[in-house]
Amino acid sequence: MTPGREPLPPWAGRRVVLGVCGGIAAYKSVQVARDLTLRGATVDVVLTDAARRFVAPMSFEGVTGHGPLIDIFAVGDAALHVSLGREADCVCVAPATADFIARAASGRASDLLTTVLVATDAPVVIAPAMNDRMFAHPRTRASLAVLEEDLRYRRVGPAEGRLAAGEGSGPGRMVEPATIVDAVGRALGDGGPLAGSRVLVTAAGTREPVDPVRYLGNRSSGKMGYALARAAWLRGAEVTLVSGPSTVPVPYGVEMVRVETALEMCDAVLERVGGVDVAVHAAAVADYRPRVPRTEKVKRGVAGDALTVDLVANPDIAAASAARMKAGSVAVGFALETSELLTRARRKLDAKGFDLIVANRAGEKGAGFEIDTNRVTIIVRGEQPRELPVMDKFAVACEILDVVEERLA
Ligand code: C5P
């Protein structure tokens, strides 16, 4: 997010305590502090004594705007641990070292960070980071099991990959800052309007095989649908993303179902849509597919100067879904048009049984396929269209989900 822009849910105006322990991965915690701050959260950094040997306190002051807290015995701050714990909407510990995990599991309050933990009711996100042998050790496993029994704790990672100084490559590496920030966002969104609801999102374009190497496709990247899936997960929903081929990174926490053709997408959606509260049809589904894909590669020498491919209509996934959705659920459609945008979008809203439709014009600057921004108009049945300015796709996703939440309520 660019600085200065309105903070987006679920981070806006929330208070996060970021605990940093003494591990090599602590250098990445500065990025976590920065990203949380840029998203609109107030971040109180608490360093363990050992963390100071890995990363300079000044770095955190630079990105959060205020100095990190270290000393539980600082004069004038006698009740600091209690007030930090009470005011926190989320406590995030990254990196969480083996020593920290053992202390937290046994309920110790031996420094400021563990004392805050014992004084808070907020959800706690921990991002373990240590050597793979230490992570695999029975004591560490036992301590993690104790923490995971506590429903307020959620663990993110560790990931597999090369560890520091070439020491091993098993699980032990801290997950990337972006994933930690999303895990914090999810913890903050837990009590939100989408919490506990099931959301299905379709995304990207489909590929309709012509022969074993060629397909009919379109320019949809999947960015809008992936942003919607991520935003819904951050707001507490259980999200399934049914996606055509896409290179967009999979949002953390989202159940991924990869498909290729419209028929595969149709099966995947119809199988699941009866159980969801919200269905968002953001995929660019091919309207037609070759009736019979060739089994052999089409050769120019054989086909000659002209080639005719016989096409047949694909099922309308959104329309078929509408009939299966449960009462009170919300269906969202997309309409990308080259002309008569609002008229056509309204027609689609009715024809496909959507509750709201997101209309955008093909070829408009800052909107549409492949890019990171979009300019859309949201049309809710029976209401005035809401025209939005050019925004990044995550911000558009938040606007759409705001409307969905109103409908669900
Ligand atoms: O008619 P059009 O393809 O423009 O409709 C767009 C909307 O319908 C999108 O929400 C899209 O996901 C959905 N759609 C569908 N199945 C199709 C074609 C479109 O669900 N076969």
Labels describing this entry:
409 residues, alpha/beta, eight-stranded mixed β-sheet, five-stranded parallel β-sheet, 14 helices, elongated, binds cytidine-5'-monophosphate
Overview of the molecule:
By secondary structure, this protein is α/β, with parallel strands linked by helices. Helices cover 33% and strands 20% of the residues. It contains 14 helices and 19 strands. The chain has helices spanning 26-38, 57-64, 80-87, 98-105, 112-118, 132-136, 138-149, 177-189, 223-234, 262-273, 300-303, 317-322, 341-351, 393-408; strands at residues 15-20, 42-47, 90-96, 124-128, 153-155, 198-203, 208-209, 215-216, 238-243, 255-258, 278-281, 288-290, 311-313, 330-337, 356-361, 373-374, 377-380, 386-387, 391-392. The strands form 5 sheets. It has an 8-stranded mixed sheet with strand order 10-9-6-11-14-15-17-18, sandwiched between helices. A 5-stranded parallel sheet has the order 2-1-3-4-5, with helices on both faces. Helix 1 (26-38) crosses helix 8 (177-189), helix 3 (80-87) crosses helix 5 and helix 4 (98-105) packs across helix 7. The two termini are 29 Å apart. The site of cytidine-5'-monophosphate (C5P) has 15 residues, from helix 12 and strand 14.
Strand order of the largest sheet: 10-9-6-11-14-15-17-18
- Mean pLDDT rating: 93
Q: Describe the sheet with the most strands.
A: 8 strands, mixed
Bound molecules: cytidine-5'-monophosphate
Rg from C-alpha positions? 25 Å
Q: Please, how many helices?
A: 14
State which percent range the strand residues make up: 15-25%
Q: Choose one word for the global shape.
A: elongated
Uncertain stretches of 5 or more adjacent residues = none
Which structural category fits the helices and strands? alpha/beta
